[in-house]
Design brief:
five-stranded parallel β-sheet; FAD/NAD(P)-binding domain; flavoprotein; alpha/beta; three-stranded antiparallel β-sheet
Length: 223
């Protein structure tokens, strides 16, 4: 899968300017670090998209790291931190969400659920979000926030060769496999692994290790 910052209006251009960052783009890692350490206070806004995403915990990890940097630099009391997520709670897995919610509250972070970033205006420093319903479908309503520092976790999608290969994929471009065997639902000699699958697991290294265990049994059995 690949990051698709172009799916958010104005984001590709904004990422080139001061105040808008993303650790999902390696070339922006140093810029993000420099801006966090030079931040003097204001509104720090962090987002989570309405698509599958590489490492669903990373948007929160950078937020907690930022909180720590602000505290070390003595500007946390001058800073409002907001987390806008497309999910209905702070994290997709409830048992982790319950613990993370305690962390969010202890760090005085404002949580806004069912908010999906759709536009960034780098000139006015305004981020616009569509409001989602319980099924993650846009309601037609939007809400905007002014920011001084924005960390955008961009939407992600399957790579273009997969999106264009309808014989192998589902309607959204993900490799269509049986979630238990990892065998293609359309071809009996094709297996899939990794971020490209339409399985419900997170797109993480931990998920790959689980898939490896299934693959180590199922592939030899087919051969």
């Amino acid at each position: 899968m690949i990051s698709m910052q172009s799916l958010v209006e104005g984001l590709p251009e904004a990422l080139k300017l001061k105040g808008v960052n993303s650790i999902y783009l390696p070339e922006l890692a140093q810029k993000t670090d420099q801006e966090l350490h030079s931040f003097k206070g204001g509104h720090a806004l962090f987002t989570f998209p309405n698509t599958p995403i590489k490492c669903a915990g990373a948007p929160q990890k950078i937020m907690y790291i930022s909180d720590d940097i602000f505290r070390q630099n003595g500007v946390r009391d001058k800073t409002k931190i907001t987390y806008c997520t497309s999910l209905g709670r702070v994290f997709g897995v409830k048992k982790y969400a319950d613990t993370l919610m305690k962390i969010v509250e202890s760090k005085d972070i404002e949580l806004n659920v069912r908010r999906n970033l759709i536009k960034v205006d780098a000139i006015t420093r305004t981020a616009t979000f569509e409001i989602l319903d319980e099924d993650a479908v846009p309601t037609g309503e939007t809400v905007s926030f002014k920011y001084d520092f924005l960390h955008a976790a961009p939407p992600c999608s399957p790579v273009k060769p997969l999106r264009d290969c309808h014989e192998l994929t589902d309607s959204k471009g993900w490799l269509d496999v049986n979630p238990d065997t990892l065998l293609s639902k359309k071809f009996d000699n094709i297996f899939g692994m990794g971020d490209c699958l339409n399985t419900s697991n997170a797109k993480t290294g931990a998920a790959i290790s689980s898939q490896m265990r299934a693959m180590s049994k199922n592939l030899p059995a087919l051969l």
